[in-house]
Amino acid sequence: MKILGIDYGRKKIGLAISDGLLAEPYKVISTRSTEEVLKKVEQVVEVEQVERVVLGISEGKMAEEIKEFGKKLGEKLKISVIFQDETLSTQQAVELSIKAGIKRKKRKELEDAYSAALILQSYLDS
């Protein structure tokens, strides 16, 4: 079963994909509107034949916005959306990419996808 991990942000959204065992960074999409993001995620779900979505969430001011996005996503795609704690995922993604020797520019481009992969892997490991 393929699972899509999402690190939601107001400017960029990181995506990761998994076959059920290991999560891999997939891509980063820019956000202009919720509708545009929903369409882009829907395309990924169709192309990759995703059966479940794991959406990162943390306590704080973004929590309600993320819950609302998750609700809209579930309604549009008609698949299960699971919320997974994303606390410190971005910080961990940066640290891991530095250790891996990824150059700063590339690191900034893919930071959100790496965060999504960490969120998804955390779900898979739980």
UniProtKB/TrEMBL annotation:
Matches recorded under Gene3D superfamilies: YqgF/RNase H-like domain (3.30.420.140)
Entries under SUPFAM superfamilies matching the protein: Ribonuclease H-like
Residue stretches spanning the membrane: none
This protein's GO CC annotations: cytosol
E.C. number: 3.1.-.-
Localisation per UniProt entry: Cytoplasm
Function: Could be a nuclease involved in processing of the 5'-end of pre-16S rRNA.
Family in the record: Belongs to the YqgF HJR family.
PANTHER family: POLYNUCLEOTIDYL TRANSFERASE, RIBONUCLEASE H-LIKE SUPERFAMILY PROTEIN
Name assigned to this protein: Putative pre-16S rRNA nuclease
Naturally occurring in which organism (per UniProt): Candidatus Woesebacteria bacterium RBG_16_34_12
